Amino acid sequence: MAKVELKQPIVQAIADDIKDAQSVVLVDYRGLTVAQDTELRKQLREAGVIYKVCKNTMMKRAFEGTEFAGLEEYLEGPSALVVSKDDATAPARIICKFAKTAEALEVKAGVVEGNVYDAAGINELSKVPSREELLSKLLGSLQSPITNLARVLNQIAEQGGAGACEAAAEEASAEEPAETPAE
Description:
5 strands, Large ribosomal subunit protein uL10, Alpha-Beta Plaits, 2 domains
């Protein structure tokens, strides 16, 4: 069997992994201990992120003709592929957070939603909260005015209802001096 035929399934597996991916990040894993690598893989797996160590030539062939072709220039030295199909910022967030404790882990570059970013760009993207966090913040912002209105209405009801509110409004208008019409 020719070498090309042996390598084709590997290239196809990489192509299947990156197909419909929201983001792909390349990292240099040299210097990680087995314990660190195991912990990193565990965190990525829990987030639904794929982590594979692949040969650069195989990744180059899998990237050809895709939006990830811009990563070819970063494929030097040992490289691992981190792929997310759901959360676009999850790989960057997890890798950059892990790199703070494991200084041997180095981010090379990545593609997030079709845009190629270098290591600094991926580091900035890692600061973006997840979709769930953003949605919860939005929901909290939307609920805040409604909650405040409910508190005010509850206080009005506790103080005697709408009649007390109207009486308070009449007292407030009686205390203010009447305006004289301008001539």
